[in-house]
Design a protein that fits this description.
Rossmann fold, 10 strands, globular
Length: 271
């Protein structure tokens, strides 16, 4: 008997809280997770999600694998164009002025949950096209994700055309080489990004940032208590006057000390 959507929803409502995740964040993307669950049942020679639940209760080592099945990876270059237009314009210039006043020469940014790298690379490319240019400062981006396979793809920096569809053509011509059916980012744009395998639920960089991008991850999929824990860690790593960017349809949990900068775009500032 095939696993139905109702079966999958019932299972996710039971399993997600035990992973410190929340069902409302998965409602619209559940089919992606349900397909993975069906494949996992086949691999285990199980028929129903009820059987899989019993298997999980008897096999603690299966939980990390289930956690991986619940990772949602939807990314592309220049996702939410208006957000990056603000970032690579007034936001970065305000942050750059703070860096200059401090006497530094590097503007540090963290892309948390970077997936295959489209977000940090968009930031790097956008900074190169920023007007007026930020040529007196070096942009240093730390990109982290819990999935090592995605980080390997990010470091290869080669993408299909569909990933670049929202990028301005001038940006593509300037930053990419066409290699077969792929667009591969040129080395100067890759050098600004460092990669680190890190799960934002438990580990955070030991440094401060002018800019943190944490979009469409923590404040969509994580349980509220875990959201507050991660927000505390993000805020602690944000320099005074720095910017936190979340998904434009996300909300920060109650108790946040950050103020709205561009509220409709999910851009906040540390007092």
């Amino acid at each position: 008997m095939p696993v139905t959507d109702t079966d999958c929803v019932d299972f996710l409502r039971w399993a997600l809280p035990q992973l410190r995740l929340r069902w409302p964040g998965f409602r619209k993307v559940r089919r992606q997770v349900c397909r993975r669950l069906r494949r996992r049942l086949q691999a285990l020679d199980l028929v129903t999600l009820k059987q899989y639940r019993f298997y999980l209760e008897r096999t603690p080592a299966e939980w990390p694998l289930l956690d991986g099945l619940c990772r949602i990876t939807i990314s592309r270059f220049y996702r939410d164009r208006e957000v990056f237009d603000r970032l690579c314009g007034p936001v970065l210039h305000a942050l750059a002025e703070q860096v200059r006043r401090r006497g530094d020469h590097a503007l540090t940014a963290w892309s948390a949950g970077c997936g295959c790298g489209e977000e940090p690379y968009t930031l790097v490319i956008g900074t190169r096209f920023s007007q007026p240019p930020l040529s007196d400062l070096q942009l240093q981006v730390l990109a982290t994700d819990s999935d090592g396979a995605l980080l390997q793809r990010a470091q290869r920096a080669c993408y299909g055309h569909s990933s670049l569809q929202e990028l301005p053509s001038a940006w593509i011509d300037e930053a990419f080489d066409v290699v077969g059916d792929c667009y591969c980012l040129r080395r100067p744009y890759r050098q600004a990004v460092q990669w680190r395998e890190q799960d934002i639920r438990t580990n955070w960089p030991d440094m401060d940032f002018e800019l943190i991008l944490c979009r469409n991850l923590v404040f969509t999929y994580f349980a509220e208590a875990l959201q507050r824990e991660v927000l505390t860690a993000l805020t602690q790593r944000l320099r005074p006057g720095g910017a936190l960017v979340i998904g434009k349809h996300e909300m920060l949990p109650q108790g946040s000390t950050l103020r709205d900068w561009y509220p409709k775009l999910g851009i906040f500032c540390k007092q």
